[in-house]
Design goal:
Distance between the termini: 17 Å
Shape: elongated
Helix content: 40-55%
CATH architecture of the largest domain: 2-Layer Sandwich
Number of domains: 2
CATH class of the largest domain: Alpha Beta
Keywords: Membrane, Transmembrane, Transmembrane helix
Strand content: 15-25%
Largest sheet: 6 strands, antiparallel
CATH topology of the largest domain: Yope Regulator, Chain: A
Radius of gyration: 21 Å
Oligomer: single chain
Structural class: alpha+beta
Number of helices: 6
Number of strands: 6
Order of helices and strands: HHHEEEEHHEEH
Length: about 200
């Protein structure tokens, strides 16, 4: 229960409480501190309850349900017709020796296709922190342990199969340019992928 509160409610509550309390106290027509405290608590509770509950259902119910349904539609149908295979709720394929993982995600309640390319995660240990320099040189992309990713956000029209392939090629070229070799996808060694699913106030989960 605490993990759910921490993930979906706590950050929003703390942020709204602080913002509301400061706003009230800075107002020239301020209430007493005790009244201001009660107003801030009530405002933060209501907003965090609504926002957190919506985010919880999006993250655990609506999002996964939509992700499953999308495998019957483009671009996932196209991926599966071009040597990608379905692994859980992602399409997994190999391009130029690199494992590419494509999945639907919902950053901040929106919609996006996440494209991740795996690389040898032992590189960081062998080259003593050079991986940090590589990340700094390529800040346009999201780096996690053993994977580099990009989010193709959209409103109504999903990114095409060709756009996904283009994105994967760009990520692979970045890895090649930086000397990061490919690695094989193993179910028991799944890396943490860049999904863009973030909690309130930008904390990456």
């Amino acid at each position: 229960m605490w993990n759910i509160i921490k993930k979906y409610y706590l950050a929003t509550f703390a942020g709204m409480f602080a913002a509301t309390l400061i706003k009230i106290l800075l107002d020239k027509h301020t209430e007493t501190f005790y009244r201001a405290l009660l107003i801030a608590l009530a405002t933060a509770f209501v907003i965090s309850l609504i926002a957190g509950t919506l985010f919880y259902f999006q993250d655990t119910k609506w999002g996964p349900k939509k992700r499953k349904k999308l495998f019957d539609k483009s671009p996932f149908v196209d991926l599966l017709m071009n040597r990608f295979i379905q692994k859980d709720y992602a399409a997994v394929g190999v391009i130029n020796g690199y494992t590419v993982i494509v999945s639907y995600t919902w950053p901040n309640g929106g919609a996006a296709i996440a494209v991740n390319v795996l690389f040898d995660k032992d590189f960081a240990a062998r080259y003593n922190g050079d991986i940090d320099n590589i990340k700094n040189r390529n800040k346009l992309y999201t780096w996690t342990e053993g994977a580099v990713g990009d989010l193709l956000t959209y409103n109504y029209r999903r990114p095409s199969y060709y756009k996904i392939m283009e994105t994967a090629e760009v990520l692979i070229n970045v890895l090649k340019a930086e000397g990061l070799s490919a690695t094989n996808y193993k179910d028991n060694e799944k890396p943490e992928l860049a999904t863009g699913n973030i909690t309130r106030f930008g904390a990456v989960i």
